[in-house]
Amino acid sequence: MPEQQRTAAAVERDFPMKIAQLGTPGNEIPVVFATDSTGTERAYDVRSVTTAVDGAFLAGGGIDAVRAALAAGSLPELPGASDLRQGTPVARPNNVVCIGMNYAAHAAESGAQPPTIPVVFLKPTNTVAGPHDAAPIPPLSSQYDWEVELGIVIGTELSYAGSLEEAAAAVAGYVVANDLSEREYQIPGAAGQWTKGKSLPKSTPLGPWFVPAGDIDASALRLRSWVNGEPRQDSNTADLIFDIPTIVHHVSQYMLLEPGDVILTGTPEGVALSGRFPYLADGDVVEVEIEGLGRQRQEFFRTVPGAPAALATAATTSTTQEQ
Fold first, then answer.
1. Residue 239: helix, strand or coil by DSSP?
2. 46-63 confidence digits (pLDDT tens)
3. Which DSSP category does 168 fall into?
4. What is the full DSSP assignment across 203-215?
5. Is residue 284 classed as helix, strand or coil in its secondary structure?
6. Which domains does the chain possess?
7. How confident is the model at residue 321 (pLDDT cuts 50, 70, 90)?
8. Which of the 8 DSSP states describes residue 279?
9. Residues contacting residue 111 through CB under 8 Å, at least 6 positions apart
10. Which pLDDT does position 89 carry in this prediction?
11. Banded model confidence at residue 319, pLDDT cuts 50, 70, 90
């Protein structure tokens, strides 16, 4: 059958749905990767269901609608999907909330005691980038660092959750995140502030996929990172100090969580801040991966002082086939 005519008529239900957005920035096409009865993974166009994977899609039953369309065989395969850039799998969220020092070993390598309550901070939503987009190092940065993290995607509005069960029910699914951080801006001296070190352009790559919460158990997923092919981080979400329901419940006591919001759950040990590895430099390649959620790859370049922010939007030529 010609590729443009093939539909999702024979999709295996034993495999998780992997929802993504493909295309140039601002023109991404929502797709779902699913495995057919031959064991072949294909990208199906879901524009008949939604024009974007965003908060409205998540709150309006979009995940179930995509699942039903797959089961009905009504989604066409997207021609040339493997040649398209992968954008962030969730359109720009209203909030990117972060949990700091949520792995005991990372707290120790940061020179801090493990927290007794979640450490919460925010990242600007304009830091969100595609999983393989080229990553700019700030012009004056000397301590740019990587952080592989599990990202929680919120599916329903939540405020003052009354129980852990209510908090868990608000989770739509999960993504891979790289919380890129400039440590000199973040930590030392009177001018060191987390907001300064965590707000840099393209410093929150997300993806490659969004996997619905019902399709994956995120309580024990291996997460790893590499720099220029050399291992850096290797841990498991089972080592989180505060688990997913606790994080969502806690954050909801202090802010309104909305559909499409992303909560980064913290990074394990193995970052440059530990002193065991050099910070990132021009030409370095970072890869981060979480079991079942895919792998990112960013090539880093030094931003020229005074260069327009648009220069930081350059994307690598990575394709979905690299995943």
1. helix
2. 999 999 999 999 999 999
3. H
4. -EEB-S-BEEGGG
5. coil
6. 3-83 (no CATH), 96-322 (3.90.850.10)
7. very low
8. P
9. none
10. 98
11. very low
- Mean per-residue pLDDT over the chain, rounded: 90
pLDDT per residue as tens digits for the range 84-117: 999 999 998 999 999 999 998 887 777 778 899 9
For residue 91, what pLDDT is reported?
94
Q: What is the 3-state secondary structure (H, E, C) of the chain?
A: CCHHHCECCCECCCCCCEEEEECCCCCCEEEEEEEECCCCEEEEECCCCCCCCCHHHHHCCHHHHHHHHHHHCCCEECCCHHHCCECCCCCCCCCEEEEECCEHHHHHHCCCCCCCCCEEEEECHHHEECCCECEEECCCCCCEECCEEEEEEECCCECCCCCHHHHHHCEEEEEEEECCEEHHHHCCCCCCCHHHHCCCCCCEEECCCEEEHHHCCHHHCEEEEEECCEEEEEEEHHHECCCHHHHHHHHHCCCCECCCCEEECCCCCCCHHHCCCCCCCCCCEEEEEECCCEEEEEEEEECCCCCCHHHHHCECCCCHHHC
Q: Residue 247's pLDDT is what?
A: 98
Q: Which of 107, 32, 116 is nearest to 68 (CA)?
A: 32
Q: What is the pTM of this model?
A: 0.92
Residue 274, both tokens = 């530990």
Whether residue 37 has pLDDT greater than 90: no
Task: Please report, for residues 8, 49, 68, 70, the alpha-carbon distance to residue 65 in angstroms, rounded to integers and kept in the order given.
Answer: 14, 7, 5, 9
Are 303 and 200 a contacting pair, CB within 8 Å?
no
